[in-house]
């Protein structure tokens, strides 16, 4: 039986308040590793991007990557953190095959960024997420477990790739987040989505959750409503999609609710989320900070970023995603409802790119929220996964604006763009889809149509001008939609006057 069946989600909140804490690991996109010159390029042959420093061989000495420090500070500033005037690296000691140094170089009591916050919106409500710290550390190597399961349990043997060992990471840790009530899972999701957008805007990470460059550990506990004392938490590790963060928290809230409601005690442990069953299962029981025997890294001097440099970096921080959204709304002149729909369809980025390529905001919205959204839904893909670029949509609209094609032909061109690697202009050119404006060509069809519909023509002669639409429609149909409609109307009226 699932916990959602044991304990109704809404019912938990009659007696308990959830407290969540999120630890997000971000892989930076620096060219070289955190403490050595090895490349961070993804996908190379195993062990081709290693050296004595990242393998921790005796006598090797680390050197801090300045670009990583700059990225960490910019990220901290964007999270409204204070930047430490002096911060230190620390050794986090543990033995595991993915870490040949037998310790991870991290930061402990003196992180580079601390005490920040961000505001996120859920259901039109704003929630402030207090940030405890953002610190620098290095990634571990990658274990590959061979066998039918692909996991360590049931593997025949395991292989190690140390290319990833030493890649710069930043870990962003929130303070306990309270007051979210039954929206806790959505708030967590919104926060990580906010970080993803922010980091992308800052240009410090590729933030591909599915490739693991942004991973989240989600802590949650329940405390009796009105209590001051935090409950016992569990930590669900390595969530790598926004959906799984929300699902895992929902599940844990029900599971803990059921345990507490029956008088039991939650066990402090790490857990794993399973996509297939949408549930979590226990991992190891949680080690405590003292298990890691943290101590200051003796091979690195304290990091004391120059204040002037920090202020220069502050000037490079883009506005928060929400502010930029608001600006986009004002400058684009969308109605509230149009804007809500655009946000809901995740169409902001593609519309912005199309506007940047020279299209009017309303025209960009019309294509992305109309025909293209319809195609995306048919194929169950997101807008940015459709095989058409913002540049191509801009080119399409330009062909319309210059009168070379009309809306009807444009839809046909979209079909072709989605199914080939030709651009709209190439398609119009190679398939002769241009609108026909040539008077001779149009007149020959106009005359035919008037002859065939003499009754309609007679009505128009007598002053029933509305009837002209029927004739225009027939001309268009005969010319596969490629006739210049305004010109056709003009010609019909002049023939019948
Ligand atoms: P650890 O190293 O054990 O993962 P951290 O202090 O790095 O611990 O992070 C723990 C995270 O869990 C932080 O985001 C913190 O705010 C949060 N947290 C701490 N106590 C609780 C609690 N009782 N319930 C929910 N979250 C908590
Ligand atoms: Mg942790
Ligand atoms: Zn190296």
Helix and strand arrangement:
Elements: H1 3-6, H2 9-15, E1 16-27, H3 52-55, H4 66-78, E2 82-83, E3 90-93, E4 103-106, E5 113-122, E6 125-138, E7 142-146, E8 157-161, E9 168-174, H5 184-202, E10 214-224, E11 234-239, H6 242-261, E12 269-274, E13 279-285, E14 295-296, H7 307-314, H8 321-332, H9 336-344, H10 348-356, H11 361-369, H12 371-378, H13 390-401, H14 407-419, H15 424-430, H16 439-452, H17 454-461, H18 468-478, H19 485-496
Parallel strand pairs: 11-12
Antiparallel strand pairs: 1-9, 1-10, 2-5, 3-4, 3-14, 5-6, 6-9, 7-8, 10-11, 12-13
Helix pairs in contact: 5-6, 10-11, 10-13, 11-12, 13-14, 16-18, 16-19, 18-19
The structure holds adenosine-5'-diphosphate (ADP), magnesium ion and zinc ion (ZN).
Adenosine-5'-diphosphate binds next to strand 1, strand 9 and strand 10.
Level of helix content?
A: 40-55%
Largest sheet, strands/sense/barrel:
9 strands, mixed
Shape: elongated
Structural class: alpha+beta
- The chain-level mean pLDDT equals 90
Backbone CA Rg: 30 Å
Regions with little confidence, pLDDT below 50 for 5+ residues: none
Write out the strand line-up for the largest beta sheet, numbering strands in chain order: 2-5-6-9-1-10-11-12-13
β-strand amount: 15-25%
Number of beta strands = 14
Key features?
binds adenosine-5'-diphosphate, about 500 residues, about 20% strand, binds zinc ion, elongated, alpha+beta, nine-stranded mixed beta sheet, binds magnesium ion
């Amino acid at each position: 039986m699932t916990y959602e069946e044991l304990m109704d989600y809404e019912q938990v909140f009659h007696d308990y308040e959830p407290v969540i804490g999120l630890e997000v690991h971000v892989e930076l996109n620096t060219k070289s590793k955190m403490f050595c010159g090895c490349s961070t390029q993804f996908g190379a042959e195993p062990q081709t991007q290693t050296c004595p420093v990242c393998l921790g061989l005796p006598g090797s000495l680390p050197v801090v990557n300045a670009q990583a420090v700059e990225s960490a500070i910019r990220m901290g500033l964007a999270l409204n953190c204070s930047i430490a005037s002096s911060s230190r690296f620390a050794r986090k000691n543990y033995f595991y095959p993915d870490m040949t140094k037998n310790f991870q170089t991290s930061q402990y009591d003196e992180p580079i960024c601390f005490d920040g916050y961000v505001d996120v919106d859920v259901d039109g409500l704003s929630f402030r997420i207090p940030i405890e710290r953002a610190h620098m550390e290095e990634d571990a190597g990658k274990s590959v477990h061979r066998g039918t399961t692909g996991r360590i349990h049931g593997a025949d043997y395991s292989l190690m790739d140390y290319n990833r060992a030493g890649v710069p990471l930043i870990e962003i840790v929130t303070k306990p987040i309270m007051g979210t009530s039954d929206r806790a899972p959505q708030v967590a999701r919104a926060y990580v989505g906010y970080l993803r957008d922010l980091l992308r805007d800052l240009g410090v990470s590729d933030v591909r959750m599915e490739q693991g460059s942004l991973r989240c550990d989600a802590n949650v506990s329940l405390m009796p409503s009105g209590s001051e004392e935090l409950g016992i938490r569990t930590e669900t590790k390595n969530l790598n999609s926004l959906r799984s963060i929300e699902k895992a928290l929902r599940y844990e809230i029900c599971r803990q609710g059921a345990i507490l409601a029956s008088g039991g005690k939650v066990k402090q442990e790490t857990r794993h989320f399973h996509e297939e069953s949408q549930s979590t299962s226990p991992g190891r029981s949680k080690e405590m900070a003292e298990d890691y025997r943290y101590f200051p890294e003796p091979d690195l001097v304290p990091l004391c970023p120059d204040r002037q440099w920090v202020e220069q970096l502050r000037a490079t921080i883009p506005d928060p995603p929400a502010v930029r959204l608001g600006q986009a709304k004002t400058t684009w002149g969308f109605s509230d409802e149009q804007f809500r729909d655009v946000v809901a369809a995740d169409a902001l980025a593609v519309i912005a790119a199309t506007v940047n390529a020279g299209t009017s905001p309303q025209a960009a919205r019309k294509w992305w929220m109309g025909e293209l959204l319809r195609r995306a839904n048919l194929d169950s893909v997101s807008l940015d996964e459709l095989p058409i670029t913002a540049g191509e949509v801009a080119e399409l609209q330009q062909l319309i604006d210059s009168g070379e094609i009309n809306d009807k032909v444009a839809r046909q061109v979209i079909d072709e763009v989605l199914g080939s690697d030709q651009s709209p202009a190439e398609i119009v050119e190679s398939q002769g889809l241009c609108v026909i404006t040539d008077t001779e060509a149009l007149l020959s069809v106009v005359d035919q149509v008037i002859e065939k519909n003499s009754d309609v023509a007679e009505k128009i002669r007598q002053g029933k001008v509305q009837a002209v639409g029927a004739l225009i429609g027939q001309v268009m149909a005969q010319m596969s939609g490629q006739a210049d409609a305004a010109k056709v109307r003009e010609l019909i009226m002049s023939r019948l006057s």
